[in-house]
Amino acid sequence: MSELFKPEANKLYVGKGVAIKEAVLQSETIVVDGLLEGDITVANLLVRETGTIKGRVAVSQNADIFGRVLEKLDVRGLLLLHATSRVEGNVSCGMLSIEQGATITGGISSMAAGTQSVSGNNRQDVRPDKVAAPTRRVDLPMLDMPSPIPAAI
Questions:
Q1: By CB neighbour count within 10 A (0-12 exposed, 13-18 middle, 19+ buried), where does 58 fall?
Q2: Mean pLDDT across 125-142
Q3: Rounded to two decimals, what is the model's pTM?
Q4: 69-108 CB burial, b ≥16 within 10 A, e <16
Q5: Which of 25, 78, 80, 131 has its CA 20 to 30 A from that of 94?
Q6: Domain map of the chain by residue range?
């Protein structure tokens, strides 16, 4: 087999135009350009602009989202939502970075050091093996945020 086509260990790549349905996947890294339906447990996740995941996603380290994630997304480390991303469902994460233009429809909760979940002003105890359900719905476009462009004087 050519070195060019040699697969990487513990890495799954779902190419553009490829659909995997009814899967329960566990991998070190998953890169999605196509469609992935099912439950995913992964250390690191990359969903590119053409990628879509439908299912419950548990990420133990970091997730970088340019495409769509539908249903549930739990990220213990850093969740990066880029301007082209669209997340529909409940999200929980250790840290969150959102670019202007990203869309989240659903609940958002933050996990502090894996021991508590914070959602709005509510705090809940969480066992490390269980993530608390978000208690508050947040539609980001509805938030009253200042414009990134300063007003002319």
A1: middle
A2: 43
A3: 0.69
A4: bbbbbbbbeebbbbebbbbbbbbbbbeeebeeebbbebbb
A5: 25
A6: 8-104
